[in-house]
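Continuing from the previous page...

OK, I double-checked the sequence for PDZ domain-containing protein 8-like against my notes and this is the correct one:
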Amino acid sequence: MLSVLLGFILGGVTVILIQYFTLSWIFKLSPKYKPPRPPAYTPTSLPPDLSQRANGPFREETCQWVNFCGAFLFQELRESNLVKKAVITKLNEEFKEFLLKKTTGQLLHQVTVRDYFLGESLPQVNSVQVFKVRRDEKEELLTEVTVGFDLDYKGAALIAIDADIVLGKSLSVSVELLRLQGKVRLQFSREPYTHWSVAFMREPLVEIRVAPEFQGRNVSQLTTLIEKVIHRFIRKKHTLPYYKVRRSPIFPKLLAQSSDVQLYMHDTALTEGILEVDIMECSRLLEIPEAKRAFCTAAITDKPWKPLNRLVSPANGPMLNLTVEKNSSNEHGISFQRYQDQEMELNCIVVSEVIASSPAYNAGVMKGDFVFFINAVDVKTVSKAKSLIETSSGSFILTVQRFFSSHIHATGPIPVIQQDSTGSKQVSEFEPEIASLIGGYTPEPPVWEEKDRQTSFISEKGDIQVEKEPLSRG
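Thanks. Re-ran it with the corrected sequence; updated structure tokens here:
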């Protein structure tokens, strides 16, 4: 009986083992199924229908859905904490910039927002039209989109502020915006970095009501003065050719991750390992001659590579010594403009114009050259450059840095970049034809490629200050 039981057990175990090894052999012979993996990176592209319409012509559209959707969001979010925080933050930035000005800073000690009201409605948008769509044919990416529309506001927004002025006096001002109407340009661009801007194409129609009080008494004499200041602010800050280059909130600044962060996997700290990085795309690079080579270097660090961000560095262009021989009339045929960038600690002058067939032209001086030395003397102002050239006898030596000819396409005066202590900057274009902007898009003034402008425009909030400086021509 025992032998029969053992035989039965051994037979069952044998059958199970035979089935196990048979099935294992079958599964080993069958190919392993690997689920398809999505590609690590695919470049963006325009849909075919939209790509065909990118070259125009463009017609005006009503876009009433924008007004209705905006009205719904406004009625639901006007009193929300998110909107209140955004309004207070923006007002603080504007007043901080206002107090840092030399004139107002001497008169005003502090500005406090006593009350504000966002108005009864949002501005109404009409006659929306695409002015320009620019694409990079090589990368098939949109590099610039410019849209124009009519803006009409009658929401009666109000702001009341208290200002502490000199000698311990106080001034209260209440400003109510009754009407704002004008043609607006909205622009998105990837040059020199991804940003957006909005400005009036010409001075808008502005109707305001001002109620000033000085030491608790109504002072009607200040009404006209304050109205002029507000109109001038809109004209100088938000009317073409002046506009602010902005990043937030649409394109937030990317912050480097702290190096103190410790990573864990299954409750085990990752202290050593190998990181593989695939560089999928490099766009908006300088075009270099065929004889040159371009290299891409990646690093893991929380510190910025400032030398790579500088506009003027040996990596971006060669340094040249050019000898200019004056003619019999003691003329050289070269004009300069000052270039300043406090953020990048750059202070020099740049060649803004070279007269054809002049001594400077024959010596090889080109428009856009950055001048650092004249006769081995450091030069940072136009007046000093003019003095050194005038005192030189017969000839003088310019030490310049030059980008490749395909890098700079300057069609107008070189801009002078200035930045105030708040970090805000503003762009001003030179001698625009504002009338032509009403009927369509007018090409931008001096067009600079990305590498040439990136140090001048790097700012989260945008606001580059460009001011025109008189030329000096020999």
